[in-house]
Amino acid sequence: MLRILATALVVSSAYRGPRGPAQRLRRRRAVEALEVAEAAAGETTEPWHVFWDLDNKRPKDLQVLDAAMALLPSFFPEHRLESVRLYASYATLRHADCRSLLQSLMGDGTQSFLEDFPKRFPQGALFPLQGARDPRGMLRETLLVAPARPQAADFWLVRDAAQLVAPRLQARAVGTVCIVSDDSDFRQVILDIHHSGWRCAVLCQPQSWTLRKRAERWFDWNHFIEAASLGSASEAELPPARWRIGRPKALPAVDLMAHQKAHKELRWSSDVNRQKYRHLRGDKGARGKT
């Protein structure tokens, strides 16, 4: 209702008449009222955030990524998409498919960036992004590039997700976290998200049952990326998507040993459970034959 009223004020202020200081003042106040109404509407809608594991799931180029970004709000149309966080390790950026994505972002500076990155950002870097479909920069989009160490990008994804859903003293709206990955190692962070009172969705392959059975919502990666590719192809005649990449911020030094240890323990327990399940199935089969 506030948004409708403010929009009406903006329209009514644009009547044809003397363009003096009084009219400019009315128009400015109408615009301010519209901004207040949009802020009030945003506070009443539930936020949701995307944590995208580019080491595991990545589009082939920037055009497909741009089309994929446009599809994300349709997952929860009644909620407010607040941020999209992309995570990749330095080693992943050197792969051919991710290199083309980086080339689309940085252009001629890609090669020098890749060569200078280990010395310039030994702990990794955070890049602010601005998508082609977000000219006002309303959506917080970031690309975190971790150093080429085992589980470095996963560590930052888990860390940032935990910080987002951590209980705060002040009142804060509880929302939804969507993880884009097939990596079963994220099953623990999904449980942590649930324990914090937030909801969790996953965008992954149909066979990623470990993640699917722990999340409240599941979205099919195959359908998603196919729709994004079709959307990108339909816009082939248009000018290429132009993203903006901001000045990188160096990441602080962190100790990855605890995360790597937890990762190994999680893998070990998973292997033990898998062996028990296979042994149990073998015993049942043997009894059935007798």
How would you portray this structure in words?
This protein is α/β, with parallel strands linked by helices and 290 residues long. The protein folds into 2 domains: 41 residues, no CATH class; 205 residues, Rossmann fold (3-Layer(aba) Sandwich), CATH 3.40.50.1010. Helix content is 50%, strand content 17%. Strands 1, 2, 3, 4, 5, 6, 7, 8 and 9 form a 9-stranded mixed sheet that branches. Strand 1, helix 3 and strand 2 form a beta-alpha-beta unit. The longest helix has 33 residues. It is globular and about 85 Å long. The protein starts with a helix and ends with a helix. The N terminus is likely disordered.
How many extended strands? 9
CATH topology of the largest domain: Rossmann fold
In the CATH scheme, the class of the largest domain would be: Alpha Beta
By CATH, the architecture of the largest domain is named 3-Layer(aba) Sandwich
